[in-house]
Write a structure and sequence with these properties.
single chain, 3-stranded mixed beta sheet, 123 residues, 5 strands, two-stranded antiparallel ribbon
Length: 123
């Protein structure tokens, strides 16, 4: 569990486990929600793996399922001003250099969706 800006993908890489972003499986291009049955099936598939780091919250049901499947919860709790600084810095940089590499899979307002198809970023 984490607040925005905690660098979960870097943690997953350091811990040698696959990283999954809830937003990536919860949303399709143009911010169309993934059908609930398809989301639940993919979420359960992820949770059945031996190791995983899931970033994001999703529904309370999905949070509860992750808590029931995991053996470790890591709560990263930096002071709130640190999170604001990281988020602000990321947004300002995005204005001049585009979205961060790890966020380029997100659909833009026009619905453009780059070719990254898989929802896992392997370490």
């Amino acid at each position: 569990m984490e607040n925005p800006g905690c660098a979960a993908p870097l943690c997953a890489k350091a811990w040698f486990c696959p990283y999954f972003a809830i937003d990536k499986i919860q949303w399709k291009p143009k911010w169309v929600p993934t059908p609930e049955a398809k989301f639940r099936a993919r979420h359960e598939e992820i949770l059945s793996g031996e190791r995983w780091l899931v970033d994001g919250y999703g529904s309370m049901d999905s949070v509860e399922a992750r808590l029931n499947h995991c053996d470790t919860v890591i709560f990263i709790d930096h002071p709130i001003h640190v999170h604001y600084w990281w988020a602000t810095k990321r947004q300002v940089k995005s204005l001049f250099f585009g979205p961060p590499r790890r966020a380029r899979w997100l659909p833009d307002v026009a619905g453009h969706h780059p070719s990254l198809q898989d929802d896992v970023v392997a370490p």
